[in-house]
Amino acid sequence: MVTACFGRRAYDSITMERRITMSTTKRWITGVLATCLMLTLIGCETTGQSAGLGATIGGVAGAIIGHQSGHALEGAAIGAAAGGLTGWFVHDVKADRAKSREQTVQTYNYQPNQGEVLSIEEYFVSPDVVSPGSTVTASLQYALIGSTGNTQVVETRRLLRGQQLISDISSKTFTRQDGTWITTQQVKLPSNLKPGQYSLVQKVQTDKSTIFGTAEFTVR
Prior knowledge:
Blueprint: H1 2-44, E1 49-51, H2 58-64, E2 89-99, H3 101-108, E3 117-126, E4 129-130, E5 135-145, E6 151-161, E7 164-176, E8 179-188, E9 196-205, E10 210-219
Parallel strand pairs: 4-10
Antiparallel strand pairs: 1-2, 2-8, 3-5, 5-8, 6-7, 6-9, 9-10
């Protein structure tokens, strides 16, 4: 009788443990599915652009940024340093080679013994006076000479107000050939962005060189 009682208790204990494990597993799977659904919705919210995330899930945005189309950046603004900003839209980076290698070599009177030359030529934000929720275009022109033919170039754009980082807008690696390049990126600003003077820093970096330009614009 004692043995049977002990066996029944052991059976009940094992059954209870299994129920607890199954319940915990179900909750874990549900959480994973919910997260996957959220990421899917974020990635499919728009075509050719993605909505930026506000302060509520700003930390998650920093982790999942970089949802890409396979040819150019399509993603929400990286992070939300200022917090509370909603309605970011970051479009694809568009690039055109304005001058061939030969034309660029002639412009700079380049000699092979100079090695890699990475030179910024022009940078600006248009328009330079906007209202919250407006779209600005960040433009950058630079020359690359003396590379091996296909150089990995990282283009980074970030928005500041004074010394305060508002958002790392984008960071994307491209393969560039020698020549003069013009790259542009449209950014829809948050609808609750405070009025004031802002700076958009555009940086280009290879494994040998780094250049950057800072253009200012006003939000009214």
